[in-house]
Amino acid sequence: MTRSQKKEGSISDIFTSLNPDGFGKAALPDRFIDLKKSLWNAGLVQSWRDVLGELEVATSELLTFGGTQVIPRISYEELKGGLSKSLAEEIKRVGSVVVTGAVPKEEALGWKRSIQEYASLNKDRVKGFPANDIQVYELYNTKPQLLARTHPAILHTQAALLALWHTGTSSSNISLSTPISYSDRLRIRQPGDASFKLGPHVDGGSVEKWEDPGFRAYYAKILGGGSGWREHDSFDAGSRTLVKGDLYETANQCSIFRPFQGWTALSNTGPGEGTLRVFPNLQLSTAYTLLRPFFRPRNASSSSSFDAEDWVPDLESSAFPGSMPGNTQEYTDGTHPHLRLKEAMVEIGRVEAGDQVFWHCDTIHSVESFHGGKTDSSVLYIPAVPLTLQNADYLRDQRIAFEQGIPPPDFPGGEGESQCQGRATKEDALGLSLEGRRALGYAEFVAGEGLDEGFVREVNRVLGF
Ligand SMILES: [Fe+2]
Predict the structure, then answer these.
(1) How far is the CA of 233 from the centre of ligand 1 (A)?
(2) Is the pLDDT of residue 25 over 70?
């Protein structure tokens, strides 16, 4: 393994808002003033005005016509026939999608029962958040997780969604048609829970989005000013693979190219029952996020004004609202008023056990602060991740961690499930389908459809074949 373990912890470590020190209390060092100045150009004023204008139109429309129905939904049966051009465009515009029915309901409910049995069998060793009444488990290596990550219909869904991306000039080093496994944890959230309240956020770093040269290249059109933000391509995998979201190497920070985060439902859950919300306009929220640190309210009384006239360039402070090095980018009405989060964050709608939700790595998302339902709201976090050289390198270390029963490299470390009875083993992995074994890094890749010969050779070498 080439990666060292992260310190022990839980999902709360990466959210400034879930930490006792609170949100936005610590000022960023002065080097962030220099960073802002180095990125500034006068054309950003025009971008800012445009984006605020468009946000006003988009959020008003959303409030008039919107709600949950703006989130694209497709059944797995339909998806198998291929995404229509219009639905593909809609998923790209909104930045998220619900795929229903890929896994039979009974199978998904069986997975949950099996996880609950495992958690109770190993109750003295299982950790999570919050520690005294776990809703989000530090479990990565249960048998149902292994089965779900390699489920043919889930892998097929991932490939269909990864095809929304394009590889640009790096086509020989990425295979968007080859999904691989990125192990993550799970949530079994009980009715009445108010502890697991993840406010609006974007995964994959905060200040890193301006600090890292790879991110700056990916966002070059937005940072270039003028109307460039309209041309930003959120689905340019060739460029996105070059970003470094874990500049500070903190636990819970995704270090690989993860185009879509996602989950597979293990329960029937609807709005108000502790589920996911998203901001349903990817282009606008991304542009606004990138532009926001360059502007401040003209005076204290204009801090919640939507009017561009009330905002002026801010190159004298180190403020990057909602950003904290190594943590997730967070959003509140105070830090990002123009998003009108309270109204514009849309519930993803009712899901049944076995349904999947995916959202683009730049989509602003949150988890309802209170679970007001009558039954558990449960998911396995399973993203859509393609084969790349860097991702193969991670897959090798993830495989080693899996065999030891410890958390995967990006997650809080410690002994994890190494002493737990009944966890998934290498033998279980070797008993899976060829496609499943490949996704886990247990079988060689072969050149062919979407897989360049030189790339495959390199990938297999990295994986030790
Ligand atoms: Fe997240």
Answers:
(1) 21
(2) no
- What are the residues facing 377 on neighbouring strands? 189
Q: How far apart are CA 242 and CA 257, in angstroms?
A: 8
What is the CATH topology of the domain spanning 11-463? Jelly Rolls (2.60.120)
Cα(136) to ligand 1 centroid in Å equals 13
Task: State the DSSP H helix or E strand holding residue 58, giving kind and residue range, or none if neither.
Answer: helix 43-65
DSSP string for 351-389: B-TT-EEEEETT--EEE-S-B-SSS-EEEEE--BEEEEH
State the pLDDT confidence band at 297, using cuts at 50, 70 and 90. very high
pLDDT in tens, 361-400: 999 999 988 888 889 999 999 999 999 999 999 999 999 9
Distance 431 CA to ligand 1 centre (A): 32
Count of Cβ atoms closer than 10 Å to residue 289 Cβ: 25
Rounded to the nearest angstrom, the gap between the alpha carbon of residue 306 and the centroid of all alpha carbons in its chain is 28
Cα–Cα dist 148/20, whole Å: 35
Query: Any idea where the domains of the chain sit in the sequence?
Result: 11-463
Sequence letter at residue 418 = S
Cα–ligand 1 centroid distance for 203 (angstroms): 5
pLDDT at 26: 64
Listed in sequence order, the residues at least 6 apart from 4 whose beta carbon sits closer than 8 Å to its beta carbon are: none
Higher-pLDDT residue of 252, 337: 337
Is 278 strand, coil or helix? strand
pLDDT in tens, 28-54: 999 999 999 999 999 999 999 999 999
Residue 384 CA, ligand 1 centroid: distance in Å:
14
SS3 263: strand
Contact present, 445 and 396 (Cβ < 8 Å): no
| pLDDT at residue number 19 | 58
The answer, yes or no, to whether the previous bond of 213 is cis (omega within 30 of 0) is no
